[in-house]
Amino acid sequence: MSLYFIFTVDGDWNEYFSTKLSKKERKPDRKGLLGLIKREIAIARSIGGKILHFVHTSPVTRQYYLQPEFIRLWKKIEASGGSIGVHCHEEGLFSRGRLNDSGMLEQSVRSLTEPLRKEGLTLISYRGGYLTFCKKVIPILERNELFLDFSCDPGRYLHHKRRLIADWRGAPKNYYRMCYQDHRAEGKSNVIEIPLGKIRQRALYIDITSLPDIWKVTRRLAKKDKSSKGNIIVSLLTHTYEFSSAWKRVKIKAALLVCRLYGSFINDKEALEIIAKEKGKT
Ligand SMILES: [Zn+2]
Asked: I want to staple 243 with a disulfide (CB 3.0 to 4.6 A). Which of 39, 67, 274, 280 is the partner?
């Protein structure tokens, strides 16, 4: 069938991850970030504008990306063929891989979906900060009409501050409908998982994977696609802060070019349509 890629960018900035800084010092810098997001949009032109930018929200800054200058950029992304998604950094909620307070996560989700939808933007995608997820998140996404999740990095088993916050061991390497009882298994929920493209330990995680390895993963995915009965849909991942370095921008452009050689880029809405069509056939 066909091999599809979704180019995803998590809208984080460097200082957010410097937890030793004060809360004020960890806040983002508007001028710098506006420029970086404009670079994302410019680079995404090579793939028909099909970028999925995940808007950050966290206790460090709740309303920051709702300022008019940013809203204008979100609208520009949508108008040029891309989308905006929800990226909640609520690490404090997780303990031993379970969400302690799903009410708080839902509030966090709504702090973005409600105002952004009022602006006329369409949001259907979610990714947890640090790729966190657990089964309790599934009904929250359903209630808030976020039908695609991008938190899966198959095999990832992450501890943060001595807490287990992401467990994707055994998760499928192609898209799947999530199970209410186990987010790593296929099931009957209304949330479709689109994992990070991965072959063995190598992932389409541009920030930490070398270009030759990105090439290898893409080539293997294309090979897998030839023998597969259905479509393959996976994501590529990078972050807004990566766009500050000229070398990293070259690397991102090259990664997109490699993927274009073997498959095609789609946005999240097109992914939903393709998945619905494929389901109709079976
Ligand atoms: Zn993040």
From this structure: 39
